[in-house]
Amino acid sequence: MLQNALPPDSQSSQTLPAARKGRSLNPLTWLGELSESRYWAYLLLLPSLLLVVAVIVYPVFYGVYLSFQQFNLLRAGLGMKFVGLQQYTELFADDDFWVIIKNTFVWVFGGAFSQFFLGLVVALALNRKNLKGGPLARVLLLLPWVIPSVVAGHMWALLLDSRLGVINDILVKLGILTSYRAWFADSNTAMPAVLLVDMWRGTPFFTLLLYAGLQSIPEELYEAAEVDGASGWAKFRAITIPMLTPVIVAAVILRVIGLVNSPDLMIVLTNGGPGLATFTLSLYAFQIAYENFNFGAAAAVSVIMLLILMVFTTLYLKFSGVTKNT
Amino acid sequence: MRKIAITRRQFIKGTALAGASAALAACATPAPTAAPAKKVSGKLTYWHHYTSESEMAGLAEGEKMFKAKYPDATVESLTVPNADFMAKFTLAVQGGSGKPDTTMISADRVPDMVGMGGIQDLTERLKSWDQRKNYPDKYFDAATVNGKIYGVPSFMFVDWMYYRKDWFDEKGLKAPTTFDEMFDAAVKLTDPAKGRFGFGMRGGAGGQGLVVQVIRAFGSPIVQDGKAALDIAKTTEALKWYTELYTKAKAVPPSVTNDSFRQILEAFQTGKTGMLWHHTGSLTDVVQFLGKDGTKFLSLPRPKGPATQIADWSPSYNGIVDKKNEDAGWAWLTHWADKDTQIMLMEKTGYVPSNQEAAKDERIAKNPYYTAAFKALESGTIAPQFPGQPGWQSSVVLPTFQRILLGELTPAAGATALAKGLEDAIAGKLK
């Protein structure tokens, strides 16, 4: 395929120049000829590939290797001991682990889909032609995404505080609550409260991507649909959603990966509590690694997270149909 | 005079041997000296957990005093929040770069920090340290691993409790000296109509240590001969008593499972709770809100449990991390162990001095609030230390305790979970 795309004189030079006999090896000439060979693309890719191998491929494989070892950094003197699948079997036999898996699904899917729907509504609103103050609204709506999650976490911890929280005050004044509520201390409200905070923070991510996608839909499609007498809903269903699908798929995958991997907001707001109510896999891996320094077990949890993400991404791409035309 | 006959060969051999010995002696590392290096210069890095305004003011003043003693030295202090400390410290030590010259050390972390080779042995320096006489041997117990000492006490955390004297007077109650009296007082002080709760329980971050103290007060050991030794029956009783303050008596704010230091302190300062368990380090903050005339609040030793009174104290140590700057590090450690520095820190923060000369100073000895602290120092003990203890407390004790408070676990099931987690922690297998 690549060969067919090359111009005829390029196709005639598909071997390394050094292999050509009877030619002088002037470095500049050699480089020039190399740049026209099929190896040039690989050479250009090499630095990036080396970087990817060093910071992604090697750590992933080392993580998998570590998950079969017993290795605690606080007992570094004991070294590593091969334990086979023991880390995994112990995790699967632990009731708490399944509570953590359930919490992770609630956190990831509750977070991603609530943020997606809200982000879509906001993006559609921003995309309206007659919207006044649009540029200012776009900047203001993006601010939560720019604020570091640790700062956002501390800010919301105070807003929802059971004694000083402004939100409690407002809800009591509106008559919705009779007294201040400890949102993060009750296992029924802790996860919804954390999801609310993450919705505030994560919605602009979807807004930004979906708004960019909406801007790229040709206006002619809507004009033609209008000529055919299509309703607003019909245009949304037949034009907007199909045209946005690649953006939606990419955005959802990126956000799901972000939610699975990031324990930062949870650490600030609840640290997984009360009890296990907001304990997710990423927080579990973090705690095992950086509180108990049991890197073997932490690697096993990380491998499970990786597998979950791989299965999700594969199924999601398959069922969304986004890869059909490629 | 008798002449000693010596051959030329013997002379050459002897000269060569003496020369080699002199060269070896010159190359050998000098023995560590206890006296602070007279000439300390360059940059010295220090990791600590100070965060409050009063603590930071104490640190800044301490640095100023150090600078006056050693004008050529510059101290670069870095706040490493307590919760993040072990993660950052472990990575710095294992990574080999970015580690500080010196660090603050919580007593419960000593075994883990020594286990990873993160702190230096100070035993030899301490033997000839001129201030050693001002420190009782027991102050070094928690810094001792396999007979070697790794830290110099810079101040003491002494556990005690605060109570609202005016509330107790209102209800005609006497200050509690036993767990039963405390439970009873907590119930009687609770008045939801006034927004008052009898006890400010720490059920969020940092509350795990208090749970372990209650278990010990009910007579259960934690470890014996390096092995898990939790008594399930006694632990169950302890968890039942402590959690029932909330689950049954409702004498604790409903935010309990999210209440860490900030929340319990604010609640006591603003008149939401009548009793509070903490240590001497919060005295300055409490005085700031409730005054120091003794009419609104007083301090007390912790009440006695059914089996024993647990009144823990623990020194906050300073230790040397990087050998490269060891002499300057020792100067910094001994500076914080000096009487004057410790009195200054006490005045800024309320922390009890570890230096006995400083503790005799009338500003401390005559302060009525510290009477309870000195009683605890005389009769109290240091919490059990073992490798894996901080991890067990934060990732097993705290969430289990919260689940009992929430009604998700019974005290008996909680006790079993604590015992299992303790075995895993000691074996280095804790998840």
What can you tell me about this protein's structure?
- The complex is a heterodimer of chains A (326) and B (431).
- Chain A has 326 residues and is mainly α.
- Chain A has 15 helices and two strands.
- Chain A has helices at residues 2-5, 8-11, 27-35, 39-66, 86-92, 95-126, 134-146, 149-159, 166-173, 190-215, 219-227, 232-261, 264-269, 281-290, 295-320, and strands at 69-70, 81-82.
- Chain A has a two-stranded antiparallel sheet with strand order 1-2.
- Chain A is flat and about 65 Å long.
- The relative contact order of chain A is 0.11.
- Chain B is an alpha/beta fold.
- Chain B folds into two domains: 42-157 and 313-374, Periplasmic binding protein-like II (D-Maltodextrin-Binding Protein, domain 2); 158-312 and 384-427, Periplasmic binding protein-like II (D-Maltodextrin-Binding Protein, domain 2, 3-Layer(aba) Sandwich), CATH 3.40.190.10.
- In chain B, 46% of the residues lie in helices and 15% in strands.
- Chain B has 18 helices and twelve strands.
- In chain B, strands 1, 2, 3, 6, 7, 10, 11 and 12 form an eight-stranded mixed sheet that branches.
- Chain B is globular.
- The interface between A and B is large, with 37 and 42 residues.
